[in-house]
Write a structure and sequence with these properties.
single chain, 203 residues
Length: 203
C-alpha cells in the first residue's frame, strides 16, 4: 500500500505513548518555545535517543531534524531544503523541493483558554506538480501540553475530523486559525477557515 493512513500512524503512536508518562518538553525558559515543542516531538519519534532510530522512518522526520539542527548551529541547509523558525509567533515551517516534488511540514502551538494547557500541532503534506500527491506520511496531528507537568500527550483533533481525500491543511504563522484546502481533479482549490476559540476549532 503506497499510502499509510495517518490515522493508523496516530493509533500506533497512541499505543506507544500509553506506556509512557507523556513526552517531556525541555525548556530553558519559564515557558517552552516552538523549538522546544519541535525537538520534543522529534525526540519522541526515536526508538532510542542514542541510536537515533526513528519509529516512522528517517524519510518522514529525519530531514526535518537535520534542518532544525543546521538552523540552530548556523549551518547551511541541504540543497532544496528551507526552514522558517518564527519563535515569536510560535511557528516552524520546513520545505523540501526536488524537481516537481515538494514536501511541506509546519508546526505551531496555541495557548488554551484554561491557562493550564497548550495545543501543539504537527502537519505534513507531499505535493507533485503543485497538487497533493497522497504521501504515505501525510496528515495533521495534535498534542496537548500540560503547563504543570511540562509534558505533552497525543490527543484527538479538537473540534473537527481531518479529511485526507484531496484535502490539505495549513497551520497559522500569524493569527490562530487553520486553513483547510480542498482540491478538485483539475488542481483548483477552495479554502475554508477553521477558527480557534481557545478550546477547539470551529468550522
Amino acid at each position: 500500500m503506497k499510502r499509510l493512513s495517518f490515522t493508523i500512524l496516530t493509533f500506533f503512536f497512541t499505543l506507544v505513548l500509553a506506556a509512557q508518562d507523556g513526552i517531556r518538553v525541555k525548556s530553558t525558559g519559564t515557558q517552552p518555545t516552538i523549538i522546544d515543542f519541535a525537538k520534543a516531538y522529534i525526540a519522541s519519534m526515536h526508538d532510542d535517543e542514542e541510536e537515533g532510530e526513528c519509529q516512522c522512518g528517517n524519510e518522514a522526520i529525519g530531514w526535518i531534524e537535520n534542518a532544525l539542527n543546521n538552523y540552530q548551529k548556523g549551518l547551511p541547509q541541504v540543497e532544496g531544503v528551507t526552514i522558517i523558525v518564527d519563535v515569536r509567533n510560535g511557528y516552524i515551517c520546513c520545505e523540501s523541493r526536488y524537481e516537481n516534488s515538494y514536501i511541506k511540514t509546519d508546526m505551531c502551538y496555541w495557548n488554551e483558554a484554561d491557562g493550564k494547557h497548550k495545543l501543539f500541532a504537527y502537519n505534513t503534506w507531499c505535493f507533485q506538480n503543485d497538487t497533493p500527491a497522497g504521501g504515505q506520511f501525510d496528515g495533521i496531528g495534535f498534542y496537548r501540553y500540560n503547563n504543570a507537568t511540562k509534558t505533552m500527550e497525543i490527543c484527538e483533533t479538537p473540534g473537527f475530523t481531518p479529511e485526507y481525500l484531496n484535502t490539505t491543511y495549513s497551520l497559522p504563522r500569524k493569527g490562530k486559525d487553520i486553513i483547510e484546502t480542498k482540491w478538485d481533479q483539475n488542481g483548483k482549490k477552495t479554502n475554508k477557515t477553521l477558527k480557534w476559540n481557545g478550546r477547539r476549532f470551529v468550522r
